[in-house]
Amino acid sequence: MKYHRPSSFEEAAAIAAGASGVTRFLAGGTDVLVQLRADIVTPDDLIDIKHISGVKEITRTADGGWRLGVAVAGAEMTEHAELSADWPGLVEGMDLIGSTQVQGRATLVGNLCNGSPAADSVPGMIAAGCTVTVTGPSGSREVAVEDIPAGPGKTTLAKGELITGVTIPARGQNGGDAYLRFIPRTEMDIAVVGCAVNLRLDGDTVTEARVSLGAVAPTALLVNEAAEAIIGTTLDDAALDALATAASAACAPITDKRGTIEFRTHVAGVLAKRAAKIAYARAKGESA
User: Fold this and answer.
1) How many CA atoms lie within 13 A of 18 on its CB side?
2) Distance between CA atoms of 223 and 207, rounded to whole angstroms?
3) Which of 13, 161, 178, 251 sits CB 3.0–4.6 Å from 279 for a disulfide?
């Protein structure tokens, strides 16, 4: 195995583009190092991007959004008061990943690129409308988070491409988000179902919404029909029921030892209703 320590993302992309075998990028390492030690994957080229300038920074964008470096750890997000106040649901999703020790290393980008349909941080990013910067041999481009996963363990990134930053939109006024998951245990488990809801209010009426589901399909889903079910409503019981129906209808899960198709489909609707209520309360400045 060859270990590389590039000084720029362009250099990292060039190394990856020229590699002939299995390539892995190292930012947090909570996935790749575990896979390496378990002999699941042994990279021919391990490209360490932790030492590139800016990878540990959390900064405001010109429009009031946020820019996160690829090596920002979950613990650093949780401890960032302004980011947590703006996007509590997104931060909550990341905060659910692993133990305290893992939180000190795990990253949003690593969780996304690992390609797990049950990744806890991904629905929150999708619901928030996050984009990522993808850098490769041909330059850089902005890609919506929902367009990165391609299936279990797979992404749409081409050979030589890597994610070089995460952009979170400006929160704006009267907005709120939330993420909930169902797990068999109380903590440190993999989501059987996950759901994130992000919305904005005008008075008591929902004017914008995005709903994302995890662990109910080969990739995390952006469910436009679920968002449409609550836009224009005051999130009354009828709207919540319509939301739950749309969320369940979008599911295409599998049955495994952790949950059946029927169970996952039902729970998706239940979590959508609960997450929407929390996001709505946060948008109104109330306790969730």
Assistant:
1) 9
2) 16
3) 178
